[in-house]
Amino acid sequence: MPIDHNLLKEDLRHLVGERHPLSSPIRLQNAEAYLHRQFSETGLTATKQHFQALGDTYHNVIGTALPDAEPFQSAPPLILAAHFDTVQGSPGADDNASALAVMLQIARRVRAMKLARPIHFIAFNLEEENLLGSSAYTAMLRKNRETIHGAIVLECVGYASHLAGSQKTPPGVPIAVPTTGNFLAVIGNERSHILTGSVAKAMQSHLPIVPLIVPGNGEKLPDTRRSDHTSFWEQGFPAVMLTDTANFRNPHYHRPTDTLDTLNLDFIASVAEGLMAAVIELAIRPSA
Q: Reduced to 3 states, what is the DSSP secondary structure of residue 272?
C-alpha cells in the first residue's frame, strides 16, 4: 500500500504551527489532542504520561499496538518516537511535524499486521526544552526496570535538496558525508550498533541512507545528541535517530520560514516507506 500523500498533507496541516509551552500553549495542547485522537482512531491504545516540568504538568502521548498472540505480548517493545513541541517563533513543519506525520502513517499500517512484539508510538513533549519529555519517559523505564527492543526516534525528516552543495557536514563527523542533501542519516551509539545496522539496511532500498555509529553516547559529537534518542542512550537503552540533519541542510530550521510549503512530500513518503520496512524487519512476524 503506497503512502497516501493527501493523508500526509492532512496530518501536516493539523500539526504545523508554533507549538511552544510559553508562547503558544494552546497550539501545543491542540497538537497533543490531535495525536491522541489519531492514535485512538487508528485502533491503538492511546494513553498519556504525565510529568512535571517548567512549573506545570505536561504529557507525552503514547499509542500502543499489541500482538494478538499472548507469547508475543510480553516481548520487549519497539518504540517509534517523535517530539511535537517547537521553539518559539517557528511553525515547526520540518521540526518536527514531518516526523509526526511519518509516525502516524506507520501507526495506521501496523494495526493490520501480525506483530512479533508490542510497538509503542510516542509523541514526546518538551524536546526543545532540554529533552524534558523523553527524559521523564526513559527515567520511568529505568525505574520500573523495563527493557525495550530499541527506540527509533524521528527528528526532522521532511527537507531534501538535490542541489550540489546543499548539504553541510557537522564538525567532527568521522565519515564522508554527501554534499547533496537528499539522504536520511541513521545515527546510533556503540550500544545501539546492531539496531542501527538493521534499520539502515531495511531502509536503504527506499531512499539514500547514511549510517553513523558514534562513540560512547556521542559526547564528542554534540550535534548527534540533539534529540530524544539521547535520553535513551543516557539510560542505557538502544536507540537510533533518523534525521535530514536539520540546520546542516535546511535553511529554515528553527525559523519562521519552517513552513509546510518548504517540505518535500516525496522525501517524507520515502522515509515512511523505509521506516515501514524497518518495522517489518524488527517487529512483524515472518508469517504475516
A: helix
